[in-house]
# Entry
Amino acid sequence: MNEDRPVPEGCGDRVMSIRANDGMEQPLLCDRDYRAVFEASPDAMLVVDSEGVIRDLNPQALAMFGWTREEMEGSQVEMLVPTANRGLHERHRLRYAEAPSPRPMGRGLDLQALRKDGTAFPVEISLSPGKLASGPEHVICTIRDITGLKRVQWLSRMKAIAAENERKHISRELHDEFLQFLVALKIRGKLLVDEMDREERERAWGVIASQILDAIRGVKRLIRGLRPPKLDQQGLVSALATLFRDARQVHGVTIHATVRLDWVADELDPVTVLAVYRIVQEAVTNAATHAGVREAAVTIRSADRMIVAEIRDEGCGFELANSGAAPDGDNIGLTAMRERAELVGGSLTVLTSPGKGTTVQATVPMVRPDGEQW
# Structure
């Protein structure tokens, strides 16, 4: 390489050249070119000196953290670390300075960064030491916000948990109800073979017929839970009416329902219809089995090309830190509802607190069978 060539107009003090195949020297990159790469990086980048002071940063770092350049330059890098972790971060930084090398920061750890507004978010950080033109050793920190990746991982984990819970539910239903029925039917059948009294035989046949009818009803309930036939055959409104009737018969909870979908209920995309039904089903089931109430209210309406479903009870409620945040692993039902809403382009909010009841509101766009929004 040759550094004796004249500096092209618009470049800094240094420029390098490389000899091409045709023997002509072509300019490589000058200082300003490298600065442009630094500024254009899609990740946030910081230049930190040996004392942990931020000496330079790119626009993505400003956008990510919310501070101004004047506030960040000259400040300790620990300002970008959650308060509880700052002492540990400083110790790690000093230990890294003893033997710096290009590597990811915090292998195996869930790293968090801090915005100016006080919110923490997950990040991946890569460290690369080097001696800059100014002389002293610096570390270039590349920071990537992985909030989206963490959410995808969380949703995948919740899907697996929800699927396993559904399998356990079906297994319990088959064991506790249908297996017990089959065992009892086998015993009654054996007794019936040896029964000589005509009236007793007729009575026994009546008991068996009644048990078979109960089993048929149980199978139908299980089928409705997996895929409600009326949703396909008669539409959303009819399927919801059956759901509310089952809540009263099975759980003893009366649902006061107001459904105002007018003509749109029969003109919606099947995926949207199923999402609305499942969200209402889960919320009603939660109210019936966990809220400790004898009644709940459901309102479903169409407004501004959206379907709004609200399920409200005055029950025991529960602790939920943030109505818009992802629920934890103990709230699989909330996870399922939120996921269904988001999969069709909607959203879900939950308002609840201990002793104050629970309100679940889902908002999903009305989509026609051809995939277009109304």
Observations:
- The two ends are 63 Å apart (CA to CA).
- The chain is about 45% helix and 25% strand.
